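Before relying on records like the one below, remember that each one covers exactly one chain. Contacts with other chains, cofactors or solvent are not represented anywhere in the record.
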Amino acid sequence: MLWIDMVNFSYKNEHSRMLVVRCIGEKSFYIEKVVLPFEIIAFEAPIDARVEIWGNDLTGLHIEDTIIIGKN
C-alpha cells in the first residue's frame, strides 16, 4: 500500500456570498465543501493537490481562484 503525504489546509471565505471549495488530489482524493460567507474550513489534503474556489454571480458559475497545496 502506498501512502500519500498529507498536510493541513484551511480556507476562509472573505466574500459576502457562498463559495464552493473543491480539492482534487492523487489516488482519487476528492473533497467538495460549501463555504458560507466569512466561514473558515479546514481539512487534510495530499501535497500537490489542486484546490479550486468556485463562485457564482450574474454571469454564472466560475473559478475564482486555484491553489496548489505544497510543503510548508
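The mean pLDDT is 91.
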